[in-house]
Request: fold
Amino acid sequence: MSAIWYYVFTLVFFLFDYFILAMGLNIQYGETGILNFAYIGFVAFGAYVTGVVSMPPAGTSGQHYILGLNLPFPINLLIGGLAASALAFVVALITLRRLRTDYLAMVLISISLVLYDISNNFVPLFNGADGLYNVPEPFASVFKLTVNSFVPFFAGVAGVIALIMWAVMSRITRSPLGRTFRAIRDDPGVAAALGKGVFRYQLTSMLIGSFYAGVGGGLIIQFGGSFNPSAWLPGETFVIFAVIIVGGVGNNIGLIVGALLVETLLVHLPAFLPAIPGHPQLIQYIDAMLIGVLLMVMLWFRPQGMVPERLRKSKFLLPDMATPSGAKVLPSMSTAATAAEAPNAEPAHSIDEEDAR
Amino acid sequence: MTPRAKAHPVLDVTSDPILRVENITKSFLGVNALNGATFDVPKNKITALIGPNGAGKTTLVNILSGAMKSDSGKTYLGSVDVTNWESYKIARLGLMRTFQLSRELGGLTVLENLLVAPKVQAGESLVNIFFRPRLLRREERQNVERATEILATYGLYELRDNRARELSGGQKKLLEISRGVMAAPTIFLLDEPMAGVNPALIERIGGYILDMKSQGMTVLMVEHNLNVVEKICDFVIVLAEGRTLATGRLSELRANKEVVQAYLGEVISASTTN
Reply:
């Protein structure tokens, strides 16, 4: 396989992976209104856990890490997702009950920094700043995959997983649960006044979204075979925010458009360009600036994103909906009051009469 | 009472009074908004809560609905002590409210605003979403049918697919009231349902409130329009300086010197000047 195809399939892999990551952040932010600035922390935690459960016990590899269970793909990926959800559970218990909007965002970004520092400095956990390497490539021995054939193969695997996760997410966002999430996003006070336990639903949304974060992170470590803390600086969260804002907050289809524009075209494609002589980091810096500019342009001119959130119209909710037949025609206040005062008057509001109608 | 029953109390809808307020106090930075308000709200009647601006009416509605916590005092729904419960628990027990300034769920359609309202929905459980699709479809159909009937009654059916934030002020008032009705509450608190509304719509909203009573609901409404209070309310509670000044029928209260001095006089002189 020529080098160009290697790059193309690498881009395809990251497109699918960021689609999964964007779906996870979207259910938290786009659907439920939780400004999760610690999102990349859950991605990284899922990646690390996927890595360590699929690696052999630590003593044999010269690295320091916990677990080392030799678990096969996709069980390791599932565990990575669940581990990210478990972390989200703890974080949500600490933050969501008491904090809202900006304060919640500030605490979450601090948590992101704490997680980063722990993983970067506490060597026994995930090997500290060296990160993990030699993570086994899934199916490589089963299908006798080479370095070159593994890339398109795993891009395909990521595509299938992304498709399954998109189907699951669509089912959730279209359900009454998704509607309640959006009600909480629009006004948590009103949702609570309608009997919705806001914390419970926000927690559910955090758990679902973080599972997606963990799976997305797990796929990255399986694809690259290594992972180190520099890949998940807290600022990386904002790239995923850019994906959903550019694509369309609250729209699962928009997310793949956002992933294509931001992640594939702006983040990963320029990474393959040859460095400008004398300025090795310049492309990377221009890249970061372009994402910032794109984000501002979108927020100014098209805040709803490339593919805006779809209005859930009544036909979509109930395809064979008929014009209501049981609607009541109610007398106005004065008519009703006059009728009630008149001697021997018929009751202004007879339920039997309304039923007959 | 077993611990389980304590965790999930049920409102006895036959209780009369259905709502009891005892010595509620609330202060904001040393300013007393409520100063021992005490009253009963009779079952299946329309009760007006009136009083001058700053009397503590909206604070009281916020406390009764759980949006705010009182400093002291007790509130009971039927025989259940709901003092300082969280708002969603009070709603689940059967108390709904509207807000002084309409608060629609702006990104949702008008129909969806009503569909959120049923308190317990099978479709809000992840397990049911994936493993009981038939139950979900049946429940959704029932809810959509009921919601469209309510929308048609409230004159909002044609707007069912509009985003709620696109509605006019009056339409938002109607949406908020119809959303509460969709939740089928036992007691409905309306915070100035007629404020900023044109006379024709006042007539209609008055009709809707009378209909709520005919359906068995108890209504407690904060209202300044005495014409409306006179026409539809069975019982009036006068609040002044955070205390209950008097209770009774409006005709009786007109003869009460304290009430006239604190509130009615003010309203009557304002209407004479206008």
